[in-house]
Amino acid sequence: MSATAASRPELEAARLLLERMGISPADLLGVRPARPAAPTFAEYVPVVAAAVSAGTRRAYGSYWNRIVEAWGERRIDEPRPSEIEQLRGQVQTNVVARRNARGGRSAAEHLVAALRCLYRRAVADGYLEAADNPALKVDKPRRLSSTRRAIGDARLAEINQVAASTGDDPGLDSLLIRLHTETACRRGGALALRPRDLDSDQCLIFLREKGGTSRWQPVSPTLMRHLLAHHAERGDGDRDAALLRYRDGRRLTYRRYDHLWVRIGQHLAWVRTQQISMHWLRHTTLTWVERTYGQAVARAYAGHTDGGGKGSTATYVRASVYEVAVALAGLTGEDHPLAGEI
């Protein structure tokens, strides 16, 4: 038997062993598999934008535009961490000055986050190794504590009064204020509501919010009646279409919220000065729920699913929809169908 023939079983055994260890012959030779040529930022940003959710596009779209503006003709594997740090500094320095600005920290944070999102996709698409991701080697500015806080009852009454007595559609604006006050939902959750998401028998609405989270949220019988009446008046019969609409049947967008708070600020100087927005109503409701019913109920009310505790105990201290219904009944002063089932 020749030496070559005698070595074949040994070679096969070696190949089998390497396969089980997840090692290829190329790894032993230090040769990396050929990678596709990296695209330019101008070519790749539209690909990433088309692959992410609408919420991610809204959050990062303007920053991706800045990146294309600065590096559009460069390949995505060219910038070094130091160059990303330079761009981060430029964005932070040149941020548009607003009354509630905080030194451009948020803009710098979002730029780095937008780049990390882009490079995660590039790694998944095989354009570079995870270890070569330059955005992970650049720190994001530490996020400062939010300046938002709970709004007092008297101030909240002022907001409701202005919303109900001004503008071209005070009925719609009052509905929005009550919806966000009762449910503490985010704007995206409200805009995503469909007629099929209303359970009128149990006074529940199905909220779909950021991060793919969803939940059944109790609402008062009064709010449910107004939501149903709104659909009957402005809907087109499609139970899968948007629930919230203008008088002419067009679906609501984020612009309605912007215009609403600009108008309220024109009548209430403190709203304009402090840059009050719909998210302040979320703070207001959740603060009251936490103080009155505890953290577990507040977390369930908010739809939070992360960071609630570690270990199996967290499963047992999670609040139920019935406890949220009890908190809602306390908030609104109205009985809720689920409040008596706890």
Automatic annotation (TrEMBL):
One of the GO BP terms on file: DNA recombination
Source organism superkingdom: Bacteria
CDD domains, per the entry: DNA_BRE_C
Domain Tyr recombinase per the UniProt entry, residue ranges: 139-329
Keywords: DNA recombination, DNA-binding
Signal peptide location: none
Protein's name according to its UniProt entry: Tyr recombinase domain-containing protein
Organism from which the protein derives: Rugosimonospora africana
